[in-house]
Each structure stands twice: as structure tokens, then as C-alpha cells.
Amino acid sequence: ALHLTEDAAPHLHQQAVQLLQAIRDEYDARQAVCESMMYARLLELLARIGREWDFGQADARAHTLPIHREKMLMACDYIRAHCLEAPSLETVAGYVGFSKFHFDRLFKQFVGMNYCKYLNHERIARAEALLIDPDITITQAAMQCGFSSSTAFSRAFRAVKHCSPTEYRRMQVG
Questions:
Q1: Whole-number Å distance between alpha carbons of 20 and 162
Q2: Is-contact 131 124, C-beta < 8 A?
Q3: Rounded distance, CA 83 to CA 74, Å?
Q4: Distance from C-alpha of 161 to C-alpha of 159, rounded to nearest angstrom
């Protein structure tokens, strides 16, 4: 399985994000031959991945983890279920029976990003749904998603979504 992350291949990740946004824009515009344009951009994305992704590295990573795969999936499920509580690395490592150092190394290998970044991605995904509701303030969304302040939330949100929570809300709600 290909897991293209910003950490693993920053340049390729950026290109993929741009092409996926172009596909979405084409879909939203619904202009003549939009399906052909979307298909062309998808083919371009697949071609770029084929040329630039180091499949040897991905294969090596996949072969080093089979014995830990189930535990890493358990950890991801646990994080997803408890992300609003912001569980510590130690808590999740203990849950799956590893020391925090061993877990941290295996988790990054398995997911393609470190624990804190993954936790923030999960929390931001929850925040996206809240930001669509205009009755919920950005500070309320931040607190409901386990962030200690709206500043910390805005910083994490921008790192994941490449826009501020306010900009995201404007794009989604209109």
C-alpha cells in the first residue's frame, strides 16, 4: 500500500495535493469536458507517483512490520477513538504493549509520520466538521478537539490544512 506523506516525500506530496485540488476545482466548475480534464489530472498524478516515489523504500517498510501490523492498527484505532482527550505517547504505547521509544519508532515507520503529527491530523479532522457549523466559535471548536488554546489550534490547523480555521470555514460555508 502506498502511503504518501509530507514527511516521506515533501515535493511529491505537494504536487499530489495540487493535482487533487485541481481535480476538485474541475469537478466544482462543471465546465465542458470536465470529466476528461479530471481524468487527465488523475493520470498525471499517477505518472508522477510512478516516476518519483521510492517503491523500494515502501516495500522495505512493509516487510519490516508484518509482526507489528495488528498492534499498529490497534494503536491507530485507539488514537482515533481518544484523540479529543489527546492521549500521551506513553499511554498509547502502553495500550499496545511497547515502550514509548520502540512504539514511536515503529509508529513512524508504519504510519509515515510521528505520533504528535498523527494525533493532530485526527484532531483537525474532527475540527473540520465543527467548523462547518457557524454557531460554533473557533475557540469552542479548538476546546472540543482537545487543544489548549485557539492559538495552538490555529497553528496545528494551518500545518495540516494549509489555511487558518477562519479561512477553512469561509471556504466551506461560503
A1: 14
A2: no
A3: 14
A4: 6
